Amino acid sequence: GAGVSQTPSNKVTEKGKYVELRCDPISGHTALYWYRQSLGQGPEFLIYFQGTGAADDSGLPNDRFFAVRPEGSVSTLKIQRTERGDSAVYLCASSLSAMDTQYFGPGTRLTVL
Amino acid sequence: DQQVKQNSPSLSVQEGRISILNCDYTNSMFDYFLWYKKYPAEGPTFLISISSIKDKNEDGRFTVFLNKSAKHLSLHIVPSQPGDSAVYFCAASASGGQNFVFGPGTRLSVLP
């Protein structure tokens, strides 16, 4: 079956702009996660959704970052007033339910010039 | 302040031999550990997990060992195959949380 998909695969933007990154989880997966991976580092947890609600958003670095999952399926990560330090690969993962195996998408590489 | 450390950025092993990847953690509240494998341009793929009530978990060629007193875990791959060449991440969580903390990864190269 189809895995987790993320669009776009690459996004180049200018400092100060607004970006949206999309994640389509595996059908039927109720849990969805966003991570950020900087060069040479492991994925860094950002936020976790159970259904439509954010169950844990403790990893969001500041209020420029926001994520939604309005219908409990597709999720969008939104970054306002982008900064060069936001450049990273943003990974999305989904799991059947909490504590089940997380399946990762290929990521969106964000570059802020 | 890295809570999960993988002190070897890279490791090279001959095909057929054992690969041992190490991971150390500092947070004594961590009680669930995972290993992921990542190929270039792909997302990480789950390999194997272990909870703190066990000290070993085995799945085919992959075995994870946990030493709670030393706050250390290791992944053994036997025998190593060229297709195992990838970056391996160790991850940990506490009390059933979904907030996984990942290490920086170790790049494994299995030489034919």
Question: Helicity level of chain B, as a percent range?
Answer: under 10%
Please write the string of helix (H) and strand (E) elements of chain A: EEEEEEEEEEE
User: Which protein chains make the most extensive interface, counting residues with beta carbons within 8 Å of the other chain's beta carbons?
Assistant: A-B, 26 and 21 residues
- Note the gap between the termini of chain B: 37 Å
- Tell me the total number of β-strands of chain B: 11
State the separation between the terminal residues of chain A, measured CA to CA.
37 Å
Mean pLDDT of chain A, to the nearest integer, reads 94
Integer-rounded radius of gyration of chain A: 13 Å
Quaternary state of this entry equals heterodimer
| Low-pLDDT residue intervals, each spanning 5 or more residues of chain A | none
Shape, per Cα inertia axes of chain A: globular
Strand content of chain A: over 45%
Category by helix and strand content of chain A: mainly beta
Notes on the protein architecture:
The complex is a heterodimer of chains A (113) and B (112). Chain A is mainly β and 113 residues long. In chain A, 0% of the residues lie in helices and 49% in strands. Chain A has strands spanning 5-7, 10-13, 19-24, 31-37, 44-50, 53-56, 65-68, 75-79, 88-95, 103-104, 108-112. In chain A, a hairpin with a 2-residue loop joins strand 5 (44-50) and strand 6. Chain A starts with a strand and ends with a strand. The model of chain A has no long low-confidence stretch (mean pLDDT 94). With 112 residues, chain B is mainly β. Chain B has strands spanning 4-5, 10-14, 19-25, 30-38, 45-51, 56-59, 62-67, 72-77, 86-94, 101-102, 106-111. Chain B starts with a strand and ends with a strand. The model of chain B has no long low-confidence stretch (mean pLDDT 94).
